[in-house]
Amino acid sequence: MTKQKLKAAMALMADRDNAARDVAVQLGVSVSTLYAYVDAKGQPRERASELLGKRGVRSKIAA
């Protein structure tokens, strides 16, 4: 997963009309790799924050 693919994955997964399998195929990664970096709502997981160079990435929705 590259930083560019990660950003695209976050945007695509945030759109509930996109299926995870379709996003994974479009990005050229497996579904398990996709979910290792982002959740079903497109929010970054800890592994993504490492790639993005951020600590403690929080959901934009969470307070």
Give me the strand/helix succession.
HHHH
The share of residues in helices is 40-55%
Strand content: under 5%
Count of structural domains? 1
* Total beta strands: 0
- Residue stretches low in confidence (pLDDT < 50, at least 5 long) are none
Q: Quick check: average pLDDT?
A: 88
Alpha plus pi helix count: 4
Structural class: mainly alpha
Q: Between the first and last Cα atoms, what is the distance in angstroms?
A: 28 Å
Largest sheet: none
What is the approximate shape? globular
- Rg computed from alpha carbons, rounded to a whole number of angstroms: 11 Å
Description of the molecule:
The protein is an all-alpha fold. The protein has one domain (3-52). The protein has 4 helices and no strands. Helix 1 (3-14) runs antiparallel to helix 2 and helix 2 (20-27) packs across helix 3 (31-37). The model has no long low-confidence stretch (mean pLDDT 88).
